[in-house]
Amino acid sequence: MTSIGFWRGPVDPTKDKRLNAPFYGVSPAPDGAVWGSSTGYPGAVVRPVPGPNPPSTPLAEHDELPLNAAGVADKGFSPRGFDVDRSGVAWLALASGHLASLDRRKCKAPLRVPHPMGFYGKGADGRIDDPGAGWKGRGMYSTCATRAPLYSEGGKGTISKVVKFQLRPNPLAK
User: Which structural domain range is residue 45 located in?
Assistant: First the structure.
């Protein structure tokens, strides 16, 4: 858990804290939770848990994108488009031009967000094209676009693209 809302520094687990994290992107997860991306710097993934009496018992996981020792988000910032796959992995398109994922099963301490470089994602949607084809019939789609494409890789004349990410169950799946 990292600092949340207007408070900086470590969160005291014995005290309640107000979470100021409006959602930009929202997606349901297979376990029934509803996740959201919260813009800003560095931005965060939020997973609210309503509890037995939602007005008075809610809790929320708030995972900020990592900052380096100087407090700079050199591995991406400001989540935008958002989706959760059927394994419960959250996928985010970041305003910095990165694609990020959060797999809660791998979290033990501070969050580390793996992502490829050089991608300016504007949205994310998971899709099943062929239910009988296993992982080969599934994918995640995103647009790749920027307000100033001539400054991106490819230079002048570069246009927006729709990109399909094939999500394998493991890197060596055939």
Answer: 25-107+115-165
Asked, for residue 17, whether it belongs to a domain, the answer is no
Is 77 within 8 Å of 65 (Cβ atoms)? yes
> Dihedral of CA 121/168/23/18: which sign?
negative
Specify if 130 maps to a domain: yes
Higher pLDDT, 18 or 64: 64
CB atoms within 10 A of CB 146: 14
Place of tokens 């992502």: 115
Predicted confidence (pLDDT) per residue in 103-147, tens digit: 888 876 446 334 444 566 777 778 888 888 888 888 888 877 766
Q: Is the peptide bond before 169 cis (omega within 30 degrees of 0)?
A: no
Residue owning tokens 């376990």? 31
Number of domains the chain contains: 1
pLDDT surpasses 50 at 1 = no
Q: Report pLDDT for 2.
A: 38
Helices and strands (DSSP H and E) totals, the chain = 0, 10
